[in-house]
Amino acid sequence: MTLTVPASALTYLGTEHLIDDESRELRAAVRDFVDRRVRPHIAGWYEEGRLPARELARELGRLGVLGMHLEGYGCAGASATAYGLACFELEAGDSGLRSLVSVQGSLAMYAIWRFGSEEQKQRWLPRMAAGEAIGCFGLTEPDFGSDPAGMRTRARRDGDDWLLNGTKMWITNGSIADVAVVWARTDEGVRGFLVPAGTPGFTAPEITRKQSLRASVTSELVLDDVRLPADALLPEAAGLSGPLSCLNEARFGIVFGALGAAHDCLETTVDYTRSRQIFDRPLAAYQATQLKLADMGLELGKGMLLALHLGALKDAGTLDHRQISLGKLNSVREAIAIARECRALLGAAGITLDYPVIRHSANLESVLTYEGTSEVHQLIIGQVLTGHAAFR
């Protein structure tokens, strides 16, 4: 009997012809960075509940992935597909690592790049692209996540200044950020503000005791009569369309990123089942095991095809923001199912940090929730199909 050479699920799918040389090179560089700089340490960081985010940010800046899909101001101007593939490799390392890059580039930097003044762009973007300054994005509040229109944070004019009061919650990078992009209600509607760290009345206590995204900095933002000059306002953002457009940028990265976590789980599990002996045979040689691996490989492959399709649409400038919901819903839902199935195939070994599977599974519980829950994305798709908004 001749055995075929084992192939990874994505190699077997044959998608390489859909990726250009530049994107492949960048993907390889990010994969090398993750293998060299993150994988040897991530289990310890996760167990300790910390991430050397500032150190990593500078290294990621040198790699060119911070704000990589933006043009100018020290940003690489890479394609959407290249950015997606970078997110895939980063999240294969850990969701916290991809979150660091995603919040920096797709939320904080994108908000400044898209809605900021030229002075704001010149002040912040080059330093943020280099990883010398870190940003965060303050939209979610303790009582308002899926419904940001209900936010209670307010900004009112006081002479030429603005006074901000309110609280933001679950903010990645918050307590280490040099600048926070904060969204607040005003008499003119929802507006965005740049709040530098150290501004009187602005604090960012870190959130601890997390059992997911432990290798990530998560914080609360507290604004108590924070006084900002007039030029702290993002001049081109008016209404909720501003922050929601930033969320669409971040959601796009998750379409690829979640698949990276799933791929790491599947590759780990295939290797484990090929070496694990059960009743004098490799676990991988049993039909029940192969049926599970085949189903997971199929869903991973389908998810990658959808991600690459959405990347091609974004690069062509024809991507509808509602199409991102297809990708975010599918990628995260299937990724968490793959992680759970892989955990079961690893048996007792699957609950330890000796393998990445339980870490990915726990992280994906957060990814399932942020940037729009599965239910929110289902309702976005449902509205497209029926013409009726059913959010309330």
TrEMBL record:
Domain of life: Bacteria
Cofactors (names): FAD
Pfam assignment, any one: Acyl-CoA_dh_N
Domain Acyl-CoA oxidase/dehydrogenase middle intervals: 136-226
Record's keyword annotation contains Oxidoreductase: yes
GO molecular function: fatty-acyl-CoA binding; flavin adenine dinucleotide binding; glutaryl-CoA dehydrogenase activity
Residues in Acyl-CoA dehydrogenase/oxidase C-terminal domain copies: 239-385
GO biological process: fatty acid beta-oxidation using acyl-CoA dehydrogenase; fatty-acyl-CoA biosynthetic process
Alphabetized UniProt keyword annotations: FAD, Flavoprotein, Oxidoreductase, Transit peptide
Segments forming domain Acyl-CoA dehydrogenase/oxidase N-terminal: 21-132
Gene3D superfamilies, alphabetized: Acyl-CoA dehydrogenase/oxidase, N-terminal domain, Butyryl-CoA Dehydrogenase, subunit A, domain 2, Butyryl-CoA Dehydrogenase, subunit A, domain 3
Family according to the record: Belongs to the acyl-CoA dehydrogenase family.
Name used for this protein in its record: Acyl-CoA dehydrogenase
Lineage: Bacteria, Bacillati, Actinomycetota, Actinomycetes, Micromonosporales
